[in-house]
From TrEMBL:
<dbReference type="InterPro" id="IPR050204">
    <property type="entry name" value="AraC_XylS_family_regulators"/>
</dbReference>
<keyword id="KW-0238">DNA-binding</keyword>
<dbReference type="InterPro" id="IPR035418">
    <property type="entry name" value="AraC-bd_2"/>
</dbReference>
<keyword id="KW-0805">Transcription regulation</keyword>
<dbReference type="Pfam" id="PF14525">
    <property type="entry name" value="AraC_binding_2"/>
</dbReference>
<dbReference type="Pfam" id="PF12833">
    <property type="entry name" value="HTH_18"/>
</dbReference>
<dbReference type="InterPro" id="IPR018060">
    <property type="entry name" value="HTH_AraC"/>
</dbReference>
<dbReference type="InterPro" id="IPR018062">
    <property type="entry name" value="HTH_AraC-typ_CS"/>
</dbReference>
<dbReference type="GO" id="GO:0043565">
    <property type="term" value="F:sequence-specific DNA binding"/>
</dbReference>
<dbReference type="InterPro" id="IPR009057">
    <property type="entry name" value="Homeodomain-like_sf"/>
</dbReference>
<keyword id="KW-0804">Transcription</keyword>
<feature type="domain" description="HTH araC/xylS-type">
    <location>
        <begin position="212"/>
        <end position="313"/>
    </location>
</feature>
<protein>
    <submittedName>
        <fullName>Helix-turn-helix domain-containing protein</fullName>
    </submittedName>
</protein>
<dbReference type="InterPro" id="IPR020449">
    <property type="entry name" value="Tscrpt_reg_AraC-type_HTH"/>
</dbReference>
<dbReference type="GO" id="GO:0003700">
    <property type="term" value="F:DNA-binding transcription factor activity"/>
</dbReference>
Length: 318
């Protein structure tokens, strides 16, 4: 049964606050900004299915952004695909910006910061897919975020029209048919993005599997202070240099992945009200960072504030 969020029956001065909460409920934890908040109009029609979610969103001009603090507060990981149905928008992720006109599509990921700038009277169809499901079909999906797939291209027309037609037909289908139709949507997304050929680098499937194994090893050993790039490379059976070459195709490095994974775990713990009795240093040490001065510096570089300030801000938000 579809869920609807609409500002229509909300008092003018409360509409944008309502919209901000509705956007977070429908998608992922986000921030919203709007120049003229009184009288804001917005509408979301959301359908959560077994393998993905579909929504039609429309409204007045505003900006939506996913920040580090939003990512730290969420344990879920998704890819989102926006198909522009009316007017224009801009999606930015990883310093890549996609200016969308009617019919254009763009992919973005909830595990990294992004921003959407939406114009007046816009309308989009948004597909939200768990990361693992799309990565199974398209291992290099992270390299294709923030890149426009033109709705005027042959493949863009096929993907856009196909997604719209399947989305319209889902409500008239029984569960087994719906499952196949959802798979078809994911296949269409993968096929369309695979056609974006302006990427100067490509991760092969064996390399993607190696990256996944490496990240899994890192996640499983974050609490070990001795976890560094040398130990990770040895566990993967190759040199640090070669493994870094592979990770460079995702515009990162072993050291960066280890650091980011630790900081994300620490940020989540600082957000957790059940851990208020534990000091910041205890939490940092639990995730393998024993040098508190170094930890404080890299945390501030990543999240824009000191760990204690981050925790205090999280308490206010909660």
């Amino acid at each position: 049964m579809p869920t609807r969020f609409s500002t229509r029956d909300v008092r003018d001065h409360e509409r944008f606050s309502y919209w901000r909460e509705a956007v977070c409920d429908a998608y992922v934890q986000l921030g919203c900004e709007c120049d003229g908040q009184d009288g804001f109009q917005g509408d979301i029609r959301l359908e959560r299915l077994s393998k993905l979610s579909l929504s039609r969103v429309s409204g007045n001009a505003h900006s939506v952004y996913r920040r580090g603090i939003d990512i730290a507060r969420s344990s879920d990981a998704f890819f989102l695909l926006s198909l522009q149905l009316k007017k224009r928008s801009r999606v930015t992720q990883h310093d890549r910006g996609a200016d969308l006109e009617t019919g254009d599509l763009v992919l973005y990921s909830s595990v990294d910061p992004y921003a959407l700038d939406l114009t007046d009277s816009f309308e989009q169809l948004v597909v939200q897919v768990p990361r693992g499901k799309l990565l199974t079909h398209l291992p290099a999906a992270d390299l294709l975020t923030g890149r426009r797939l033109s709705g005027k291209s042959a493949i863009g027309k096929v993907v856009g029209n196909g997604i719209r037609q399947i989305a319209d037909g889902l409500q008239y289908s029984d569960t087994p048919v719906q499952d196949h139709m959802q798979d078809a949507i994911i296949d269409l997304i993968a096929a369309g993005l695979a056609s974006v050929n302006d990427v100067a680098y490509e991760v092969s499937q064996p390399e993607q599997r190696l990256i996944s194994r490496t990240k899994a090893f890192i996640e499983a050993n974050l609490s070990d202070p001795g976890l560094d790039r040398n130990r990770v490379a040895a566990a993967m059976g190759m040199s640090v240099r070669r493994l870094n070459e592979i990770f460079s195709k995702e515009e990162t490095s072993l050291a960066a992945v280890i650091r980011e994974s630790r900081l994300q775990q620490i940020a989540r713990d600082l957000e957790d009200p059940r851990l208020l009795s534990q000091s910041v240093s205890e939490i940092a040490m639990r995730w393998g960072l024993n040098n508190f001065q170094h930890f404080s510096r890299i945390f501030k570089d990543r999240f824009g504030c000191a760990p204690r300030d981050y925790r205090a801000r999280a308490r206010l938000l909660n």
